[in-house]
Amino acid sequence: MKIKFPNKSYIAILCIYLLVFGRQALAQTNVVTQHNNLSRTGWNNTEYLLNTKNVSKGLFGKLFTRPVDDQLYAQLLIMNGVSIPGKGKKNIVFAATVNNSVYAYDADSANITDPYWQVNLTPDGLRSVHKSDETGACGGAYKDFSGNMGIVSTPVIDTLTNTIYIVARSVAPDRTNFVQYFHALDVSTGEEKQNSPVLITAQVPGTGTGVVNGVISFDAQKQNQRCGLLLLNGKVYITYASHCDWGPYHGWILGYDATTLQ
C-alpha cells in the first residue's frame, strides 16, 4: 500500500496496491498491528507467491485511490471478513489521519468508492493538535510534524472482539486544554464500544523534573504518542516520549484493560 500527498493540499490519497494475475486478486492478509506482528518485523509469513519475476510492471501496481482528509502518519491496517451492516462480510483497510479521522474502505473493489464508515474523534469544541501548539519544542521551531498531529500512532485491532484501538489528541482553540483520548471502536460500524473513550491521565510518585509535591503527572501537551499501540495478553499498551526534548517530559508506558478500558 502507498500514500500520496498532493502538493499544496492537506488531502491525502490512499492508494491500494495488490498483486493480480489476470482478473483474479489474491486474498488479503490481516495486518492488525504495526509491522504485522508483536516483534514488529514487518514480515508476512503467509506470503508464498511474490517474487522478483511477478512483482513487475503489468503484474503489480496501483489499482485505485481513495481520499482522506489529512496526512497519514499511522500505518494502514487490514482486517478480513468484517461484517458490515447491510453489506455482508468485507475485507477492510483502515486509515487514521492526523485530523483525528478514521476511515473503513473496501480493500478489494475499485468500484466501491465510499467508505463503509467514517468517524472523526475530535470532541465538540476542540480541534486536532497542530505542530504550532508545541510552543516550546525546538525553541518554537518544531518541524517533526508538518501540520496537524491528532492521530499519529498506528492503531491496533483485536480480531476476537472486532475492536480497533486508537489514541487521538485534541486541544481547545485557545490552547487552554490539551487532551488525549483512548478510543475503542467497533470495526463494523466505527461506533464507540462500551466505556469508550477514556481520557488519558496518569500520576506516579517520583523525584524527576516537573515533580509537584512528590508526584509526576502526565502532560497531554508535551507527551508525544508516536509509537504504535500494542495489544498483548488482554491489555493495550500506549507509550510516550517527547516533542524535540521539550521538558518537562517523561517516558510513559500505560496499560489499559482491552475489555473494560481501565
In words, what does this structure look like?
The chain has strands at residues 2-4, 12-21, 24-25, 60-68, 77-84, 88-96, 101-106, 117-120, 127-128, 156-158, 163-171, 178-186, 198-199, 203-205, 215-217, 230-232, 235-239, 253-257. It has 262 residues and is an all-beta fold. The strands form 5 sheets. Strands 9, 10, 11, 12 and 13 form a 5-stranded antiparallel beta sheet that branches. It starts with a strand and ends in a 5-residue tail after the last strand.
What is the structure about, briefly put?
The protein is an all-beta fold and 262 residues long. It has strands spanning 2-4, 12-21, 24-25, 60-68, 77-84, 88-96, 101-106, 117-120, 127-128, 156-158, 163-171, 178-186, 198-199, 203-205, 215-217, 230-232, 235-239, 253-257.
Distance between the termini: 34 Å
Average pLDDT value? 90
| Shape category | globular
What is the gyration radius calculated from CA atoms? Answer: 19 Å
In sequence order, what are the helices and strands, one letter per element? Answer: EEEEEEEEEEEEEEEEEE
* Share in β-strands: 35-45%
- Helix-strand makeup class: mainly beta
Number of strands: 18
Q: How many helical stretches?
A: 0
- Low-pLDDT windows of residues: 1-11, 18-26
Amount of helix: under 10%
**Most strands sheet:** 5 strands, antiparallel
